[in-house]
Specification:
alpha/beta; six-stranded parallel beta sheet; 11 helices
Length: 317
């Protein structure tokens, strides 16, 4: 069987799908469009592209990226299945050409359609569309599947784990709540490590929040994740799916504090392990949440969210 994945894999989550497919002796290839780099031939070429983007709404870098995708597919030959993640990154015309290279063309969306609309791609392009967003699943009749546990399960241990609550976050609409939570935790003497990334530090930022401009990736965060007792997850407005941070917490058997109200609908939800905060209410956390130990999931529930089961479900293996 031949399967190709087309995605914008900036944070290297999608590559785990390829690794899992290859474990099953499937010929799997990844076309990662985040790695495509277009080089302008001259200052004139750059100026023309700027004009085209502003006036004609055409970006030569995107056009060349799409050409590269199609060329690589041509070289791979016919595929049994092609999965695209973040389908909004490609034009409808390119999707229709991609579909000619496969027996089955499917998509997975791990962002909300409110943030990255795909209304123009819903007219018979894909044989099936999966989404992690419960609201989008209901609205568009998508097939539901969450994100997945991609890392190995960690044994429960109290050694070398600080009392830290950890998050890394871009400075966006979530920051005000993060700052308020930092003020609350500081007033209670509760340790935390919050890293906020952006171009400029916000005004009145809590002195215990670490601000930096450099982006960090999963491999850069491993020590912080290993040494933190609780993971903090703040969702973007309009999101109704679970981020990868939730599944990292499940794998590492860590407690979670989140603003994602929908998490209570999942079978792994346990109020002992997961605290849901409401951005619109005054922060007030029961100290027992910090004091009680993590309660492990059953093996059946844990397996349901692994990359193994995700691949089995999506590709019908």
């Amino acid at each position: 069987m031949k399967i190709s994945l087309i995605s914008f894999d900036f944070f290297s989550f999608d590559h785990h799908i390829i690794l899992e497919l290859q474990k099953r002796n499937i010929e799997a290839e990844h076309i990662d469009i985040s790695k495509f780099k277009y080089k302008y031939t001259s200052i004139f070429d750059r100026a023309v592209n700027l004009f085209n983007k502003k006036v004609l709404k055409k970006n030569k870098k995107v056009i060349e990226m799409e050409k590269d995708v199609l060329k690589r597919l041509q070289n791979l030959g016919p595929q049994d299945i092609i999965l695209t993640i973040r389908p909004d990154c490609l034009s409808k015309e390119t999707h229709l050409k991609i579909k000619q290279h496969t027996n089955k063309y499917i998509a997975y969306i791990y962002d909300s359609c409110q943030r990255f609309p795909i209304d123009h791609l819903l007219n018979g392009i894909f044989d099936e569309i999966f989404s992690f967003d419960l609201v989008d699943v209901k609205k568009y009749n998508f097939s539901f599947i969450s994100n997945y546990i991609y890392n190995q399960k960690k044994e429960l241990t109290a050694s070398n784990i600080n009392e830290n609550i950890f998050i890394i976050i871009s400075i966006d609409e979530r920051f005000n709540f993060l700052n308020n939570l930092a003020d609350y935790l500081s007033s209670k003497g509760i340790k935390f490590k919050f890293i906020a990334i952006g171009k400029k530090a916000p005004k009145n930022i809590n002195s215990n929040i670490i601000f930096q401009r450099k982006k960090l990736f999963s491999k850069d965060l491993q020590d912080d994740l290993e040494n933190s007792k609780i993971f903090l997850d703040l969702i973007r407005h309009g999101h109704n799916g679970l981020s990868f941070r939730i599944f990292e917490a499940l794998a590492m058997q860590r407690k979670i504090i989140t603003t994602n109200q929908t998490i209570s609908q999942y079978d792994f939800y346990n109020p002992n392990n997961i605290l849901i905060l409401d951005e619109n209410k005054t922060i007030d956390i029961d100290p027992d949440f910090f004091a009680t130990p993590y309660q492990p999931l059953s093996d059946d529930i844990y397996y349901k969210y692994t990359i193994e089961n995700w691949v089995k479900t999506v590709f019908k293996l």
